[in-house]
Amino acid sequence: MNTRILLLGFVLIGMVACKPSASSPDTEGEIITVADSRIREKVDLHELVDSVSYVPLETSDRILLGDVLCAKRAGDYYFVQDTKGLFAFDAHGRFVSEIGHRGQGPEEYYNLDCFYLDSGRQLACIVSNVQKKIFRYTFDGKFHSTLSLEDDDANIVFVMTYDEGEHLLAHYPLPNDAKATDREYAMLSCQGDELTAAKLLDAPKVHSGVTIHPLLYEPMASFRNRPLFISAFSNRVYTLKEGRAAVEYVIDLPGIVADDDFWEKHANMELFQLREAMQQQHVGMGITAIEATDDYLFLVINYGKTLVWDGTTGWLINSVYDSNSGLLSILFDGVSDSHLGVLSAEFLYQNKERIKAGNHPQLASVAERIGEEDNPVLYRYHFKKSLE
């Protein structure tokens, strides 16, 4: 089961893109820096979190998951996307229902390109770009309605609600042979059963050929009741102000992004050539993922280090280990209800004795009861109120 778990820890998967240009965003923003004393090579997980919660997902003839791609929580429901579809579980991990079905009927979707949760309306929403539709289902899997997308807007790879579900923030892949998109982000507004789009950021000036590339691992998050999103090969974090993109934060770290001279020398270079050039010249790739809790903002830098910011102070962490289990991890998975971590049953079963020998009774209890072919276990970190 592909849950990004290795014996030594959790692996963050990175994609590569090119420097974007914004559709006239506000260029002001709060500067976030990290003092040398707060740059840490290795940190014990328990310096950061009070506890970790685990939810084993039901395994039965009714539900056997494939490779898990994404897991989110809303209220008393967990939603898990695998290679076959989208499935709902209750607060205890008991299977509730499949969300919709693949097919060609009026209430069925062809492809599950991504999904989002409208918690206010208790709807799980599946984006099917080829149909130019978003299919909306109740949390227990019943069909609710569809929203129609314009052709230029039907290329979404990541989406979330904001403004109490009245609008959607949509993220798009690099321009490619299949679709020469003109935007990196757009704001979608509902007009009856149709969605209209307003471009927020221009598409990056690079083409990925026959390959469709998502730009970023996790491109957007909600932090303290406002949407935040990042742009490819940038050190800026954007928000929305009066329906436009505005720079909220600027991350000031040495070598985080390429300078203007690099971009001038590598203008109009194809994606894979650009990536090779950046690697050879040790050029920074900027902020490559974003997540948040009520208390902390998490930014992955150059697909590696994690910047943790509490609104006043920043910490830059290279790696995290769990002293109770002896495992290394990347802090980013399991940060929030929008990005739950996933432990494969195979991993837990094969490392059962090692886990039991550690000082982690809750995880040991889960490992003791799980079978090698069972469905995975979801987890979430609960962070300390203060990291000082």
Structure, described:
- By secondary structure, this protein is mostly beta strands.
- The chain is 10% helix and 40% strand.
- It is built from 5 helices and 28 strands.
- Strands 4, 22, 23, 24, 25 and 26 form a 6-stranded mixed sheet that branches. Strands 3-21-20-19-18 form a 5-stranded mixed sheet, with no helix packed on it.
- The longest helix is centred in the C-terminal third of the chain and has 10 residues.
- The radius of gyration is 21 Å and the shape is globular.
- The chain starts with a strand and ends in a 5-residue tail after the last strand.
- The N terminus is likely disordered.
Number of strands: 28
Termini, distance in Å? 38 Å
Main beta sheet:
6 strands, mixed
Number of helical runs? 5
Question: Mind sketching the topology for me?
Answer:
Elements: E1 5-6, E2 9-10, E3 30-32, E4 39-44, E5 49-56, E6 68-74, E7 77-82, E8 86-90, E9 95-98, E10 114-118, E11 123-128, E12 133-138, E13 143-148, E14 158-162, E15 167-171, E16 183-191, E17 194-202, E18 220-223, E19 226-230, E20 236-241, E21 244-251, H1 260-265, H2 271-280, E22 287-292, E23 297-301, E24 305-309, E25 314-322, E26 327-329, E27 341-343, H3 345-350, H4 352-357, H5 361-369, E28 377-383
Parallel strand pairs: 3-21, 4-25
Antiparallel strand pairs: 1-2, 5-28, 6-7, 7-8, 8-9, 10-11, 11-12, 12-13, 14-15, 15-16, 16-17, 18-19, 19-20, 20-21, 22-23, 23-24, 24-25, 25-26, 27-28
